[in-house]
Write a structure and sequence with these properties.
This protein has 256 residues and is of the alpha+beta class. The protein is built from 4 helices and 17 strands. Helix 1 runs antiparallel to helix 2 and helix 3 runs antiparallel to helix 4.
């Protein structure tokens, strides 16, 4: 069942969403050569505590990993796509890109968002990967309207990525969000005809999160059981927003 949120519930999701936005903005400002992914983790956890929020990720159990996720951030560098772990030994260097994904629970409601940030000067081909991934998210957001269907969103991401010569990851998907981090429906970044194609209705909230590889779509999971990286070593990008269906069109909860 896809839950629908009323105005009061959406206001709570908005507060969670804006906190996630503020955290990501702060972390983006911190990103430069020499900073470690653990430095970002420490700053993010402090901001959550200060805001009276709980991490949506820390303690999250994933059957595939067989463990609880130990951090408030996922920091995925270069060929890492998602679920990279903050690490005090992982110093960022010029030319890297770091995907920062975080989520909070505030007053019972979740917010979840991700950005991919360049470190110093990056190669033009990598900048294009970031641009195309961000554009695919924006094009998908524009389809979040009552009466449209889920596949409109999935197909929009897939088409924009493929037209630009990149590939979408198939093993991981976006999701509904509300009083749980992961709710129905799954939101793949491609049209999966095995799934249903529900119509979008007012009050539904989707976490749309294109995960895009510069090279081939295949994924490998690293020895830590969490980090998903490109199988071919190519760079990857990831952007995510929570978007509510309203009578006035898409409401992006995770930005002002
Ligand atoms: N944004 C990701 C998601 O929606 C991050 C989850 S990390 C985890 O699934 F630790 F919570 F699993
Ligand atoms: Co998510």
């Amino acid at each position: 069942m896809i839950t629908r949120k009323n105005a009061a519930e959406l206001e709570k999701m908005r507060r969670a969403g804006l906190l996630v936005y503020e955290i990501l903005q702060r972390l983006k400002e911190m990103v430069r050569e020499g900073v470690t992914t653990y430095d970002l983790e420490v700053a993010a956890e402090r901001m959550m505590t200060q805001a009276g929020a709980k991490s949506a990720f820390k303690g999250y159990y994933a059957p595939s990993a067989g463990t609880e996720y130990p951090w408030v951030l996922c920091t995925s560098v270069n060929d890492e796509i998602i679920h990279g772990m903050p690490n005090p030994k992982r110093q960022l260097k010029a030319g890297d890109v770091v995907s920062i994904d975080t989520g909070v629970q505030l007053e019972g409601y979740f917010g979840d968002s991700a950005i991919t940030v360049p470190v110093g000067e990056i190669a033009p081909a990598v900048q294009k990967l970031l641009d195309v991934t961000r554009e695919s998210l924006e094009l998908a957001i524009a389809k979040v309207a009552a009466g449209n269907r889920l596949f409109d969103i999935c197909g929009t991401v897939e088409r924009h990525v493929q037209l630009n010569g990149f590939s979408v990851v198939r093993e991981f998907v976006g999701h509904g969000i509300g009083t749980h981090l992961h709710e129905e429906p799954q939101v793949p970044n491609y049209i999966d005809r095995r799934n249903e194609n529900p119509r979008l209705k007012e009050g539904m909230v989707l976490a749309i999160e294109p995960m895009v590889n510069a090279g081939r779509p295949e994924v490998k999971v690293l020895a830590d059981k969490w980090t998903a990286a490109t199988a071919d070593g190519s760079f990857a990008a990831h952007f995510e927003h929570c978007v509510a269906v309203t009578a006035n069109g898409p409401w992006v909860l995770t930005r002002p």
